[in-house]
Amino acid sequence: MLSPSGTPPKLSQSLSIGTKDAKITYKLKGIIYLGGNHFTSRIVGSQGEVWYHDGIATKEKCLHEGKLNTIEDIHHVRDRTSCMTIYGIV
């Protein structure tokens, strides 16, 4: 996921769309990563906790990584690069 300048865009923990009177706020819920012809993901819980999932390596388990605001490089995980973000309505 690159911006026109070739650098990764800043990911916001939340974003709002609409007018001042009719605004909808969305919260970051997940990030999909691609690398080595394989997708992995980070899932963001309601309290900002982050879980890593790789169906090949972790099978049915998710690994707790900590809080979203403590992850240094949200665009990369285990040699994979973010390719999609998922937001949900608050």
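The record above closes out task 2.4. Task 2.5 opens with a second protein, given below.
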Amino acid sequence: MKKLLMLIIFAATLVLSACSTYQEVSSNKEENKRTITVEQAGELEIPYDVERALLFRATDPLNAHLLGVKPAGVNEILKENKYIEENLKDVAFITPGDLDHIKTLDPDLIITYAPDDYSSEYVDIAPTIEMIYNSSFLSPYKKRVYLTHFYHLGVMLNKEQEAKDIIDEWMTTMTELKRGLPFNASEYDAVVLTEIDGGYQAVPKFGSFGTEAIYDVLGFNLNKEAKRLMENNATTVESLDQLKDFEADYVFISSNEDPKTLKTKVKNEAGMDESRVVIMNLDDFRTNDLISVEGQTKEIIDALK
């Protein structure tokens, strides 16, 4: 009985902890101070009005833009991303760990991925939040990790209600976008690969690289073989002829290789119909903010028509 009681208390503690993450504890507009709860540091004091955020995660810069906050700097890995280029024309591109460059931006908030080897040094420059890219089991957006993190960003930037409103609008936009596909995607399965050193990697749902557009917006099913590999932490695809094992209806590959050349390789090595293969620009499909996902969805629909 005592063990059972301890388990109940432990479970309740976990629930309360999950409930309280990324929530406002207190705020003072006159002093430009807010206190929020975060995963890594418990409670953290940040500015009431964030004006010079440094955003190292690929999902955050354009979501901040949607919320009306222009970032002071973003990760240099996004330098070739067309959605960043179109919407954040004068933003600074920062190499993670380049403390001298970061100091010149005088950020008032730094948001980065977890773990980040440099976060202990960032905290000497500005309040720093490390974020693990997963979803809370109590999230109102359930397994849609990209929406959960958009909402959390809204809390951090003091734009919580704006984030909720934009997500509500996004649900309608998703339905409208899906109508543009000339067939029912739910009748087909798909595998999404992204180019890595030495081959490719199968990308899970809500793992960026077009997966939000493919699996969530358009409604393709996750290929069974890809799912099996993910469950066994064996997602590397060393050569394209391995696609034969997937027997997928559609294959989507994010790569910087010439699309025509790569399509021909997939056809020759995996025996796939080229009309069932979509090549996506690696740099443009790296981001999974709402602006990018909408643009990616339109690109994919055009490729499938």
